[in-house]
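Board notes (copied after class):
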Amino acid sequence: MLRKFIFKNNVTGQEVILPITPEKFTINRGMHIETINLHTIGDYNLVGGRTLFTCKITGILPRQQYPFVFAGSSLNPYEYIYFFQLTSDNKQVCRFAISDTPTIADVYIEDFQYGEQDGTNDVYYTITLRRHMPTSTAVQSTVSGTTISESSS
């Protein structure tokens, strides 16, 4: 099934839809777990808060028309690269969504690798996203300053 990968810069409002459904994406989610050893009892797991979602996407930005390119997509891969570089360099947050999945989140572009490899002028890329969690909603301190909890949103 073809899925659309949509990025919208929260500062500039510019929206980009990847021209081809990426060949691969992986999402990592989890929680912090620390294992401690209690003398005479053994190992014990202390479960902490959740980890922030990360997503790695691998695909192609085409320089030529293929039958699987979304209609209306730019065939200049460097337009997409410019969007990702500018957003990353300016430390701006993007709203990221994958169509027909529950994936929608505000993210930073943590890493962006790209290059040409086969003489077609198509650009192959890997982009790593990390969830953005505003400080005001991510951590809440009590008045005494001794209790810290992560929000559930």
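Comment from the instructor: The first strand starts at residue 5 and ends at 9. The chain has a mean pLDDT of 87.
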